[in-house]
Structures are given as C-alpha cells and as structure tokens.
Design goal:
Blueprint (H helix, E strand, L loop, with lengths): L18 E6 L9 E9 L7 E5 L6 E5 L6 E4 L6 E6 L3 E7 L11 E2 L13 H8 L4 H17 L7 H8 L7 H8 L3 H12 L3 H12 L12 H12 L3 H7 L3
Amino acid sequence: MQGLYSPIRDGIARDARLVHYREMKPPESLSHLVHCYWELKTESRLEQDFELHAVPDACVNILFNELEPEVAGVTALRTTFEVLNLGREFHYVGIQFLPGVWRGNRQEIFDSYVGEAYRGSLPLIEVNRKLIGLDFRARERVMSRFVEELVSLDCVVPNPLTEKILRNIQDIQDVRNMAEAAGLSPRQLQRTLKRTTNFTPHDLLKVLRLQQSFKRHYLDFYSDQAHYIHSFRKITGYTPEKFKKKFDV
C-alpha cells in the first residue's frame, strides 16, 4: 500500500523551531505494512510546554520514549483530534503502520498521551532499550526486525480490504461506493471493516477524505465548500485556513 496513502504528520506549530520531526521509509519488504518510521524530539529544552496537535489518520503507531526506556505504547486516534502536552524536553521514535494492518490487542491502544511504563504483552521495553543511543538509520534496522517479529506473531498482517479502499479512495463518495470498491455488500463491508480495523465504513471514510484533502482539491472528496469546512473543523478543531496557517503541514 506504500504510495497509496500518505497521511500528514501531526500538527507542529510553525513557530516551534526547536522541535524536530523526521521520517524514514521502511524497507521494500515491509512497505505494504509500514508507512514510516519517525522521530520527534526537542533540540534543546523549551521555555514552555510543547503541545502536539494529533490528527486522525486511521493508522496505528508504536511509540518509544527515548528519555524513559520503560515508557512505550500502542497509539491510535478515532475520528477527532487530540492535543498532547509533551512537556519541555522529549525524544520519541516510532513505527506508523498503514490502515487496517494492526491485529494486536486493541485493549492496549491509547488515544491520549502515553506517559507511563508499558505493561502490555509486547516486548516494547526490550526493543526500546535496543533503540536508545542509536542513530536514526540504525534504529530503522531495529524497528524493522521488530515489525518482522510482530508479523510472525500475527499482530501485523496485510489487509486486502483496506488496500482496495485506498486504491479507489478518489472514486469513493459514500459507503455504497466503498462497498463496490471492496467487492462486498454494505453489510459485509460493515462487518469485515469493523472486525479488522474497529472502524465503521462511515468513520473510516471521514478520516480518509480529510487526509486526502491535504493532497488534492477538496471538491474531489466533498460535495461543496461548506461540507468540507464543517467536516475539517469537526475532525481537526480548526478551519482549513487556520490549520494550515498555524501548523507546518
């Protein structure tokens, strides 16, 4: 699915000059599962707390706190934004999976700030200890090996349904179109999508359309400007104009 879907990064205010974000693509062998590996950190201690404006993208992330090795977690948002106060000094790295491929324990998924030691069943703390002190390229190799381990545990698997949806997203205007693109009845789509992604078709469509509107003209995905602005504000908390003015996207 690599290339079919490229979500925007979460909102980093344009004036946050000491906050650094970067991404690295996974190896080709994992590109149907992983969108990117990422890093978010402060270059030096900030004068005030930094707030990350997280935007829904239908992806699941695994997050590692490089300043506190025991702090890690699995994160994902539903259909609305979340403002995360990361404090004045932080260093995170993570894995962003493509929509629909995560099959791990959904009870472990956070939709808010991850600030406590990980207590789940995955070896996140062990992996984080391997990551600390490495440069970004070396971290990519460690995270790729971990993704391969997750595949062997059936925590991450290809999702033909979401792949079909993403391949045809430009032609999908409603749930009926989505079902046709997937080759399923609306009821089959509802059941299969909920089971494999925990999204209803309507909610997934809202998130994907919002993400695609950053890459193409909004009228490719919305009936008119009023519909676009209303949906954008409901999901992100901002109008499109104010969001793009405030955040570096």
